[in-house]
Structure formats: C-alpha cells, structure tokens
Amino acid sequence: MFNSKNLLIGLVATSISFSMGNITEAIAQVSNRYLSDQEIRSLEPDFDVAALGSSRVRAYTDIRSASEITQVNNFANAWAKADPSISPFLGMWSGWEESYSFYPSQTKGQICAVLTFYDEGGTKQKISIGRVTGDKLLVSGDFGKTTFIRKKGGLIRKQSGVAVPDQKTDIIAQYTTVGSRKSVFTYIFPTRLQEIRDRRFADLGCTASLPSQTQTQSPTQKHPSESIVFDFYTWYFQNSDTYRRTLSQKRRAFTPELYRNLDRAIRISEMPRWSGILNFDVFSNAQVGSYSFQIDSVAPKQDSAEVYVTLQTGLGYSRRRPNPIKVLVSKNNNRWQIADFVYLRDSPNIYSLMSILRGINQRQDFNEIPWGNHENTPSAPSSSTPVRPTDAIAKYPTNEDFKKVDRILRASRNPASLVNLKGNQQNQRRKFQREWESRNPAAAKFLGSWYTGNKSFYVYPSTAKGGTCVVTKDYQGNLTMQIGTVLNRELRYGGGKGFFWIDRENIVASRDSGNGDLYPIYATSEVPELPASIISDMDRQKCITTLPF
C-alpha cells in the first residue's frame, strides 16, 4: 500500500513552479535513446514484476473516490473527440516515488509530460514534450528519451484485507535505458489533472482545460504534403540518433534525387578522411539535441507544396530554441515526396540541404566513390566502412617516410611527455595488450586509446585474428566505427587509413589525409561511451567493447 509520502506525490497540487535545479540521482540519469519494439518486448517479465511489486505480495489500495474516477474518465473522453491519439494517456498517474501527469496540448498529437518528484527542499517538477506515434508516447526532455505505453496489468489489490491478483488495472508503463541498462516503471490510478500556474506551461501550449468546441469539430482535410512531413518527422524523432543508418526505411518519403544525393553524401561522411564533411543533423540543421516539432503552415501549389516546420533544438531541454525549416514537397507519379529542406534560422542567409549535398557529390575527390543503386530498397548505410586496399593513401610507407616521422619526434625533445598515461595506467595498458597477444598477436600492440590534436582513436580487440574495430572521435565528439585489419606492422581501417608501428611504445604513426605525410599518434587513457548503434556494429565484427581503463 502507498505510504503517506508516496500518496502525496500522486496528489500534490500542481501550482508549484518548475524547478530547473539539481534532482535526485535516480531521476537525473539520462536515457539517450528510445527502446526498440524488440527491447520493449524483452522487458515484459520486468513489467509484470513492476506491476505486481518485486515481492509479488505487495498490495495496492485505490483510494480514489467514484467521483474522481468519473472526472478523469470524462476529461479523457472529451479530448478523445478532439485528439483521440492522446486521450489514453491523459491524467495524473501515481508511482512509488514520483508521479507523471500527462496534459493535452494545443498541437495535435502532442502531450505535455510533467514529472513530480521529491528532492532536497521538497517537491519538484519537470516538464517535457511528448508525441504520440501508434500506441506509444515518446517523450524527450531533461531526462533524455523515454517511451510510455498504456497497458493492462496484473496488479495485486486488497479486498476485505486479502491480497488478490487483478489483471484489469490500467497501467502506464515507462520504458527507458541508461547505457546498457534497460528499465521499466509503472504508474497507476489516474486522477483529474490540476491547473499549473506557470507561464512556461502556457507558452508550450499545454492546458488542463476541456477542448474547445472548435477543437472537437471534424477537422478539415489535411493537404497530402502535411501528412508526409508529419509522418517523416515523427519517424525522425524516434530515430534521431540512428537515422543515418536506418534512412532506407524512409526512402519512399524522398524524391529519388534527394535520396540518391543524401545516401552518397552520408557514405562519404562516414569515411575517416571526410568525417567532418556533413557534420550536422541534416533534418534539424543543428549540432545539438532536438526535442519537439510542430507544423506551422502549408502553402500548396498545383504539384508541389511548402510545409513550414518549427523544431525545438538546443544544448539541453532548458536551452532549446525555435529552429524553422521549410520542407519542399513535390508530387511524382501520384506520390507526394520530400524534395528538399530549406534552413531558415539564419535568414537572410538561407540555404538548402540539396545545395549542400550537390556541393559534396560534385567534388572530384569523390569520383571513385560509387553512387548507390536505388532501384530496389537499399540496405541501411553501415557505420563500418570496408578497407579499400587499392586506395593510394593506403600504400605502405617508404623508409624516407619513416625517417621523416622520426625527425619530428626527435625535434620535440621529449616525445614521451605527449603520452597521456599517468600512474599505473601504462602498466594496465601493457597488461591488456599482453592478454591479447595469444588470441590476436598481430593486433595486440595497437590496442588501446590514441590521440592527436583534436581527434581520438580507440582500437578494440576482435576475436578474429588480425581484426580490430577502430572507433574515431572527431573534434565535435562524434563517434564513427570502421573495421580494422592488421598486416604485420600496419593497422589498416576505413578506406585505406591506418596506423604504422615505429618501434616506440605508446607512439604510432598515421598518414595525413591530404598530402600523405606521416605524423605521430600518442597513447592516452581516455575511453569513450559507445552508443548502441556502434556496439551493435562491433558485435557483428566480433569485437570486444572493452579497453584497458
């Protein structure tokens, strides 16, 4: 049964202003992506435990009156006429240590999610914006990305003092992930939403009121271009961290010319030599997080339309800013498709995605890189770029090349001082490499973290002899992974790039991507936090996702 503290969290008055300060450690952890359908299904046993209570004997008491139940049901039913997709989630749902309140929004398909929790100093609240897609509510905010689904649960209730199972209780299940840990939490017993007296609540278009008569009237038919753009951005927000790898899922949403240019430019940008060539999110025109979108207006023409969209982007939810984009949609063979994205934020300096893609794809540097065959649905571009041994830059260095890099090191007086290993870290690195000498002797000496200037390289071991996975981090912190192969004193990866052993512990050489000259790379103790997409790629290549530190 809920104790007084837990009960209060479900019924607390919502006139408290939103706190942007520190929150408890448990709540503060950020979920960096939405769970996939398969991952959600795998958590079904955890959902049963969360619903029943870890001991499966915990009993819940529904203290709501019949009037309170009627009020929340009437509120949800009223909004079902105006926006049926959001109505199943509406209400204030109680958890053991916090509650979630889901408010309707003036933007169709959008929900305002308010988390209420205890922290030092009392009760705090945080607001996030969510969008309903299918049976899921996808919420993105200060706590990262989380998925909510309304379900029926096997709750244990008390009847006449006896705990009995109940399979009919409505439950909101919250699915989240932090690193490799996936979790599910449950919220029950919804009550009527309370007004929130905070300007930001209103500014976001949130409301605790019943829908207006205009909202409940049958909506006018949308222009097809609006539906295309709405569906695309709904997909994008589900896949914003991995869209470059899964873009083929939305191939038919684009004109053939846009998809063809975008696919090739993405493949070029995944090569280490050109990793900075498309260094922004092409669908948000940003290098920061995206939190929500809304369609502002549509300007239809005969066989085309301009759809004006505003995204909220920023370095953190509390620092988000409007980011306007004009999406050009055209009609081709009775199918409406996206033809271009025009970035309006830096007006009057307006430019479009197609102009950027053409500028990349027309460069002579890339003449040898093939265009994709898009007659049939292509496979998603992989972040693992195969080795091309015919690449001129991949030729093994001459003796003169090695002498040049040796002169660079001698000129620096004390090159070992540039090795970023402290205390016992050098011994840890040696031990890690020696452990792999028997399993992968050729690759062992290259294993570990390396750096030069504003770029870092992380060489992971593979159970395939001579194989490695090389993860590169550019100056903006973006990670890419390439398959590596060791041939005697050379580690070659991604389009013929590579490291060369120069008989100095903790220092190797690499080639300049422009003139081909060798330059030194130094050992470091830094270890990256790998996203799920790269971990998945590494698993397929039989790589181990651990480094010495």
Features:
globular, disordered N terminus, alpha+beta, 15 helices, 8-stranded antiparallel beta barrel
What is the rounded distance between the termini?
Answer: 45 Å
- Classify the beta-strand content into a percent band: 25-35%
Please estimate the helix content: 10-25%
C-alpha-based Rg, rounded: 27 Å
Strand order of the largest sheet: 1-2-3-4-5-6-7-8
Shape: globular
**Total E-strand runs:** 21
Biggest beta sheet summary: 8 strands, antiparallel, barrel
**Mean pLDDT level:** 78
**Counting H and I runs of at least 4 residues, what is the number of helices?**
15
Runs with pLDDT <50, length 5+?
1-28, 375-394
The helix/strand class is alpha+beta
Question: Describe it for me?
Answer:
It is a single chain. With 549 residues, the chain is α+β, with helices and mostly antiparallel strands. 24% of the residues lie in helices and 33% in strands. The protein contains 15 helices and 21 strands. It has helices spanning 4-11, 25-28, 37-42, 44-52, 66-82, 199-203, 213-216, 224-238, 243-246, 256-269, 353-361, 399-411, 425-437, 441-444, 532-540; strands at residues 91-94, 98-104, 110-119, 122-133, 136-141, 144-159, 162-178, 181-191, 289-300, 304-314, 321-332, 335-343, 351-352, 448-452, 455-461, 467-473, 479-487, 490-493, 497-504, 507-511, 518-524. β5 (136-141) and β6 form a beta hairpin. α10 (256-269) packs across α11 (353-361). The longest helix is centred in the first third of the chain and has 17 residues, at 66-82. Mean pLDDT is 78; it is low at 1-28 and 375-394.
